[in-house]
Design goal:
The protein is 42% helix and 18% strand. The chain is α/β, with parallel strands linked by helices. Helix 3 links the parallel strand 4 and strand 5. Helix 5 packs across helix 6 and helix 5 packs antiparallel against helix 9. Bound molecules: 5'-O-[(R)-(carboxyoxy)(hydroxy)phosphoryl]adenosine and zinc ion.
Amino acid sequence: MSNPTLILGIESSCDETAAAIVADGRTILSNVVASQFDLHRPFGGVVPEVAARAHCERVTALVDEALVAAGVAFDSPHNPLPTLHCVSAVSVVHRPGLVGALLVGMSAAKALALAWDVPLIGIDHILGHVYAPALAGFARYPHVSLIVSGGHTCLYRVTSPTEIETLGQTCDDAAGEAFDKVATMLGLGFPGGPALAKAAESVPDSERQIFRDVVNASRTHAGEAENPLDFSFSGLKTAVYYHLRGTTRGRGALRAISDDERRAVAASFEEAACAIMAGKALAACRQEKIAALAVSGGVACNARLRAMLTERAARERNAIEVFFPPPSLCTDNAAMSAGLAYHYYTSGKFSGLDLEVDATPKRAR
Ligand code: KG4
Ligand code: ZN
C-alpha cells in the first residue's frame, strides 16, 4: 500500500493559532489549537495587534507539537523520534481574517514549504469550515452547508469538496458576532457565544419568547428583499439593546436587570437567532431540493441550534438529514484546511511562494 498523503495545515486567521496533520484529506493524525481568550478578555474583544504577536510566539511550537503528535518528523540530529512519513504539502489559511494575524501563519508556512521543498497550498478559511463535516465522516454530496462563525454567516450548495456555490450570506452582523455583542450588553464576558449559551441553558420555552416577533421581521429586512437566503441579525441585536434600555428614544444607559431577567433575555435572543439560522438553512434545502444539511463554524457548537435544526429538519415534508461535526471541528482549527488542501493537492492546484494574505471574504462562485 502506498504511503498516505500527509498535509500540514497552519491556521492563524483570528485569535486561534492552530496546526494539524491530516492524511489523505480524511484522517486527522493531530490537531492542536492554542486559543488566545485570556489575552483578549480584558479588552472585551479580539485586538488584532495582540493576536498577531501571540501567533508569532506560538506558531513554531504548535507546528512542532502537531508533527510530534502525528508521529511525523524530519531527519534531524535534535529529533529523538524516528522519521515515519514525510509531509507532502503545507496548507495555510490566507483569507479572510486579520491581516497581521494571517501574515504570521503565512510566513511560517512559506518557510516550511521552502525548507522541506514541498508545495504550498493557500486555503480560504470559510471553505475550510465547509469541509469540517467531511473530516467528521459526513460524505453526502450535494449538500447544503450552513457556516455560522464569529466573522461569517453563509449558506452554500456543496457539490464536491471543491465545488461550492454561495446561496446566501449575512447583510450585516455574523451570527457569532451577534451572540458576542449581546453577551457584552448582558455583561456575560468574553467569548460571548458560549457564555450566553450557558446563561440560557435552563430557561424554559415559555421564557424564551421576548424577541419572537423579530424573527418574522428579519425575514423582510431591506437587504433580504433581493435574496431570501441572505441573513440579517442587526434588527434582533437592536431589539435586545432597546429592551435592555427600556426605551427606543434618545441615548442612555442600560437598565439594571436581575439575574433572572438576564437569563430570559439571553435565552430569548438565542431562541430568535437560532430560529433565523434554522429557517434560512431549511429554506435553502427546499430551494435546492437537497435533503442533506451540514452545519459548521463556532456557533454550530450551540446546543439549542443543534436541537432546533434537528427537530425542524425531521418535520420537513422530505425529512432532511442534518449533520453537525463535533465542537472541536466546528470552532477554528487547522485540520479543516489541511483536509480540504488534499483535494487541491490531488488536482495539482498549488500556490506560489508569492501567495498573499487577503482580509476580505471572497464569494464562492
Ligand atoms: O468559527 P469560530 O471559532 O471563529 C471564526 O471563524 O469566527 O467561531 C467563533 C464564534 C464566536 O463568535 C463565538 O462566540 C461563537 O463562535 N460560539 C458560540 C458558541 N460557541 C462558540 N455561539 C453560540 N453558542 C455557542 N455554544
Ligand atoms: Zn472560523
